Amino acid sequence: DDEQDILREMEALMRLYTLSGHPSRMMVFHSGEALWHEYIDKRSPFDLLILDIEMPGKSGLEIANGIRSRGDEVPIILLTAFREYALDGYQVRPYHYLLKPINQEQICALLSEVEARLDKLRHSQLQLTTAKEVVRIAFDDILYLESQRNHTIIHTRHGELKAHRPLSEIGNLC
């Protein structure tokens, strides 16, 4: 059907972007539930989500709402064939809207923009794995670090995180 053709076209455009010197890993989901399971249940970290507003099962807007309600600020690009959906999506603070059909120049320019933004963020954040998930902490939010044997407690403005790494390894991540 048309939706599967658009999904294959988007996947091909993303692969072209990767092959043009922008190494990345891409995951394609055929339903909102599959994405939700990977993102929430498996706690997979994503640097960018491209969500079709009209997806089988959970819609792209439902997924985006769920992500934002958790406090996650991952960039989200909403994909739609209908301009009127753009108003509905503003509540999830999308990074951008893409109207179908998508062309290579448009998606490559947008992905380059997101990649530059993420590179800038990576230089201002500490990324590490806790017992439960991968977290990113803005350097500005870190109050101090506490060493406890082979663990490091990171005290932030929002609470504490326990990293299962010695302080010397945490310092190497900065």
Structure description:
With 174 residues, the chain is of the alpha/beta class. 40% of the residues lie in helices and 24% in strands. The chain is built from six helices and eight strands, in the order ααβαβαβαβββββα. Strand 1, helix 3 and strand 2 form a beta-alpha-beta unit. It is elongated. The mean pLDDT is 85.
Order of helices and strands: HHEHEHEHEEEEEH
Strand order of the largest sheet: 1-2-3
Q: What is the number of E strands?
A: 8
State the low-pLDDT regions, or none.
Answer: none
Instruction: Please outline the major beta sheet.
Output: 3 strands, parallel
Question: Ends: how far apart?
Answer: 47 Å
Structural class: alpha/beta
Radius of gyration, in angstroms, nearest whole number? 18 Å
> What is the 3D form?
elongated
Figure out the total of helices. Answer: 6
